[in-house]
Every structure is written in C-alpha cells, then in structure tokens.
Amino acid sequence: xxxxxxxxxxxxxxxxxxxxxxxxxxxxxxxxxxxxxxxxxxxxxxxxxxxxxxxxxxxxxxxxxxxxxxxxxxxxxxxxxxxxxxxxxxxxxxxxxxxxxxxxxxxxxxxxxxxxxxxxxxxxxxxxxxxxxxxxxxxxxxxxxxxxxxxxxxxxxxxxxxxxxxxxxxxxxxxxxxxxxxxxxxxxxxxxxxxxxxxxxxxxxxxxxxxxxxxxxxxxxxxxxxxxxxxxxxxxxxxxxxxxxxxxxxxxxxxxxxxxxxxxxxxxxxxxxxxxxxxxxxxxxxxxxxxxxxxxxxxxxxxxxxxxxxxxxxxxxxxxxxxxxxxxxxxxxxxxxxxxxxxxxxxxxxxxxxxxxxxxxxxxxxxxxxxxxxxxxxxxxxxxxx
Length: 386
What we know:
Blueprint: H1 3-18, H2 22-32, H3 35-38, H4 43-50, H5 62-77, E1 80-84, H6 93-96, E2 104-109, E3 119-123, H7 130-144, E4 151-154, H8 160-171, E5 175-178, H9 192-200, E6 204-207, H10 217-230, E7 233-236, H11 244-254, E8 258-261, H12 269-279, E9 284-285, H13 289-295, H14 309-317, H15 323-338, H16 344-351, H17 355-367, E10 371-373, E11 379-381
Parallel strand pairs: 3-4, 3-7, 4-5, 5-6, 7-8, 8-9
Antiparallel strand pairs: 1-2, 2-6, 10-11
Helix pairs in contact: 1-5, 7-8, 7-13, 10-11, 14-15, 16-17
C-alpha cells in the first residue's frame, strides 16, 4: 500500500475498534503521531503500552489492518466513498472542530457536498403536525432563495427529517442524510427511494458506523452528534421535552453553534421541547424564514425583479374578484409593504377595516405568494414584490 492508502485503511481499522470512543482514538493517534504508526507496533510493544488485559491491545495488529483493507475493497467496488479525519482537505471542517468527531465517514453519493460553506441542520419530532410541516417547508424555501445555497442536513427519519430532505430536493438545495446504521443499508428502509433521490441530486447519505451495524437505540444518539457537528446552525421544528431532536439541539449548542427553535402553543406537547429551549436561552426563537437566513449568516433572500404590486394583483385576480375588491386588496398589500411586521389587528385599525375582513385579505395574499406571516402573525411582503 502507498502511504495515503495505508493511512485510510488504518483509519477504517481504528474506526472499527474505537468507533464508540473516538476521543480515546484521538489521544492514541496524538501519542504515536499517526494512525498507521499504531499498527506497526509489535505485540510486545502493544502489551507494554496498553497492558496485558486491554481490550484494545489484541485488536491493534495486522489482522485488523487486513480486515480493513478487505472492507475498503468491498465497499469501494459498490461505490462507497470514505472520508478519514486525517484527510484535511476532504473532512468537513465544522465537524473536525468537535471533540468527539468521528474517525471515519462512509459516504454514498458525492463527498464534496460535505464541504458546503453553509450547512444547516433541521430536526424534530417524528409525529409532526401541519404547523410543523408548513414551517419546515417555509424555512427550507427561504434558505433556497439566499445567494449562498446552504446544505440541508438531517437524519432521514419520519416526520421533520424527511420533510426537510424532500423540501430541499424540491427547492434545488443539496441535502445530506446521516443514518444510524451501516452504509450498506438505509434506515428506515421505507425511505430508500428518498435516499436515492438525495444521492441522484448531488447530495449524500453518510454514517460513521461500520458495515453490519443494526439500528440500536444508542446508535441514534451517537448519530445526532454528527448532524449537530456538521452544521453551522440547527433548527428544531417541533419536539417533545425528550427526543432525538432535543439532543441534537443541545449538542449543537454545546459545540457553540447557532440553535433556533420553532415556538408553539404552551399546551401542545409537540412544542414543549422547543418552548423549553427558548425559555432556557439554549435556542433563539424562530420567528420566520428571514430570521433563520440571517441567523445562519446567509443574509436576506435574493431579490427577484420587482413587479408593480397593483399590476401583479390585477393580473392574478382578474375575473376572480371585482375591481373594488382588487383595489381593497391592493390597499392591504401596500400597507403591509409600508409597515413591515404589522399584525392583523393593527392592519385593520390602520385601514379602518373590520378584523375579519383584514384577516381574509391577509390569507388570500399569503396563499397567492404576495406576503408571508411569521408565527406571531406579523405580516411582510414577499421578496417578489418588496
């Protein structure tokens, strides 16, 4: 083997031995200077260093290196890529900063997608409702309209995860799924088609688990550290007080990353976790798509060519509404444009309308894409008509 190949095979072997304890592996590598140096030790040297009863000593020999080489040949023939933490050019830079960064990543798809400069993770409950689904999609759509197209990272699970992945695909954003099993399988299996679409669109499915790993409960917790560590920012869409999404958000906070959470009703169990993180100041309140873009350092969505609102409204509603109704709708739109963040009650007072009429106008304008509202019902114009 040449030097680079030996280093990669050594990383595969170390991951098989120390995958559950990457910090120990990092200290050992630091002591010896390189991964490959560890496997050059004689049996006597290993015994002297680790002790006669060490569970690691017997596994740090040539047999492990041979097994790793066979694994490399087998998976490479099946199109699997490898990224070692010792490969400074290919390893995701934000993940490298984490003290428990995995030694090795197995990658189905394009490894270079992990070098995206603006990775954002979106996580949450598996039993999301329409409120969470709508805001998850809105968040991804807003990110897709920023000048720097971010990478959407999630875990391919039911609920928030798969919604974020599919929204990214529909908006033309790259997305990466981090799975809690060996790279030869997809978990859950029912999302195999979605995983294929992610890969076909230039994204990737990744794991740090060796082949043959099955979905044990502990694996999900370890997997979440990769989702948090890969990302510059994490959005928790909906979560109960306990769950994988909560752990991911807390891990991201511990790594010093930006965390946002979608606030919800105080009596909704699906929002209890998000509300708790906001109250604890672990997360910022997600109050709208633009807030997420700015928190991620992406700036506001890129402006498209502005349209004259009156012409656009007339063109859209001609034949559906009377001239008087279109004029009234135009007044509502113009007021929202001039008073960004105005609430329905304030809008009604400003225009001398009753509240129900103002609410109907807001709903109509939002459904047609002229305006958007945040979770506090504050209105602002869409970038198309700013």
